């Protein structure tokens, strides 16, 4: 497997990141602003900053076709940034929430976006031409706690939301005048706004950290704080699912996941490395890590220490080796995992990760 492309941008946590469609621009959420990096050869150089929030920015997403950037923050606001001759111009979105915004993603059609929040609602936002502003409608019931993650179905109508009430739910976000009537699917046929198409509880009642629809939209995967990943295969409206496969692991919890085709999931989180899972409705299993631990230059584990140095370290520090550096590429929790090249209908060729260590890494799937 090709070596990963590592970009150590700074020594601060990255809450979220997003690449433009041509992969020449990288947006990262850093503290209360978003930094825009432009590709310069094999590296990324800082070229602009988006400053409009006054509290921690929790989410950022670049629309692949239009290039618009949406950001959300703990200041309870979302901003849509559009390029203009004088730079990036922000437009405030009327979220109508009284708690922090936690997560944001554009729909595949780019006609709307969804914002998760601590106010126990998902704000589905769309542009009103006659008033020239972004407004929102709320998905409320039956969410009972903070929404931590959101994923769009390929049809841009269905929306999966994971929350700290240990549930992953699938809602209809159909908005008349914005969405075309969706085709019937295993999730339902008539889909008015706020229809609950599926509600799934984590076995150990752990917080849900990440959700993702399969490329066909006919399966939903979500990760939770009990270190499990659950894959749901619905059978049709008002019927129990065809299969619910839960993969329990001895690893630390996964924060984010992405599908690679219909039979493979890549997930990453507190273990600071990405893992590959494969399976079907008959069953799923972890295949292994995407990293080979014995690479040179990541801690010097292959180097033999002299006996004198070993005893000196044992005497001074109570240990024989310096083990402050992990053997993984990421040196802290991976918070976001996103498709970089391919994905959706095409096979996933590359994906990107970012985390608490200030690194953005591009991997070959």
Helices and strands in order, then pairings?
Elements: E1 5-8, E2 17-19, E3 25-30, E4 33-40, E5 43-50, E6 57-62, E7 69-73, E8 78-84, E9 87-93, E10 101-106, E11 112-117, E12 122-128, E13 133-139, E14 147-152, E15 158-163, E16 167-172, E17 196-201, E18 208-213, E19 220-224, E20 228-233, E21 243-248, E22 254-259, E23 264-269, E24 274-280, E25 283-289, H1 307-317, E26 334-343, E27 346-355, E28 359-364
Antiparallel strand pairs: 1-28, 2-3, 3-4, 4-5, 6-7, 7-8, 8-9, 10-11, 11-12, 12-13, 14-15, 15-16, 16-17, 18-19, 19-20, 20-21, 22-23, 23-24, 24-25, 26-27, 27-28
Describe the protein:
With 365 residues, the chain is mainly beta. It is 3% helix and 49% strand. The protein has one helix at 307-317, and strands spanning 5-8, 17-19, 25-30, 33-40, 43-50, 57-62, 69-73, 78-84, 87-93, 101-106, 112-117, 122-128, 133-139, 147-152, 158-163, 167-172, 196-201, 208-213, 220-224, 228-233, 243-248, 254-259, 264-269, 274-280, 283-289, 334-343, 346-355, 359-364. A four-stranded antiparallel sheet has the order 1-28-27-26, with no helix packed on it. Strands 2-3-4-5 form a four-stranded antiparallel sheet, with no helix packed on it. Strands 6-7-8-9 form a four-stranded antiparallel sheet, with no helix packed on it. A hairpin with a 2-residue loop joins strand 24 (274-280) and strand 25 (283-289). The chain starts with a strand and ends with a strand. Mean pLDDT is 92; it is low at 295-305.
């Amino acid at each position: 497997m090709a070596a990963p492309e590592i970009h150590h941008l700074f020594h601060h946590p990255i809450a979220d990141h997003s690449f433009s469609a041509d992969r020449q621009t990288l947006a990262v959420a850093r503290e209360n602003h978003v930094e825009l990096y432009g590709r310069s050869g094999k590296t990324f150089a800082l070229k602009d900053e988006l400053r409009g929030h006054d509290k921690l920015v929790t989410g950022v997403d670049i629309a692949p076709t239009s290039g618009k950037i949406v950001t959300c923050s703990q200041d309870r606001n979302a901003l849509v940034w559009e390029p203009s001759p004088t730079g990036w111009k922000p437009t405030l979105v009327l979220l109508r929430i009284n708690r922090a915004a936690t997560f944001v993603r554009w729909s595949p059609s780019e006609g709307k976006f969804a914002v998760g929040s601590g106010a126990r609602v998902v704000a589905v936002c769309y542009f009103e031409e006659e008033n020239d502003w972004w407004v929102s409608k709320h998905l409320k019931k039956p969410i009972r706690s903070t929404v931590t993650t959101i994923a769009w179905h390929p049809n841009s109508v269905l929306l999966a939301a994971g929350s700290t009430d240990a549930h992953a739910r699938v809602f209809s976000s159909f908005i008349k005048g914005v969405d075309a009537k969706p085709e019937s699917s295993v999730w339902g046929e008539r889909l008015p706004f706020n229809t609950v198409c599926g509600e799934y509880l984590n076995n150990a009642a752990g917080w849900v950290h990440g959700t993702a629809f399969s490329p066909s939209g006919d399966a939903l995967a979500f990760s939770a704080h009990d270190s499990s990943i659950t894959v749901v295969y619905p059978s049709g409206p008002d019927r129990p699912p065809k299969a619910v496969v839960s993969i329990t692991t001895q690893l630390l919890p996964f924060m984010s996941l992405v599908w690679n085709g219909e039979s493979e999931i890549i997930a990453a989180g507190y273990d600071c490395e990405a893992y590959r899972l494969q399976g079907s409705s008959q069953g799923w299993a972890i295949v292994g890590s995407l990293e080979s631990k014995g690479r040179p230059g990541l801690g010097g584990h292959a180097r033999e220490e002299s006996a004198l140095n070993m005893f000196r370290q044992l005497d001074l520090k109570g240990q024989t080796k310096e083990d402050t550096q992990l053997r993984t590429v990421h040196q802290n929790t991976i918070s976001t995992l996103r498709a970089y090249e391919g994905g959706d209908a095409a096979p996933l060729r590359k994906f990107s990760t970012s985390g608490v260590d200030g690194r953005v890494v591009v991997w070959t799937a």
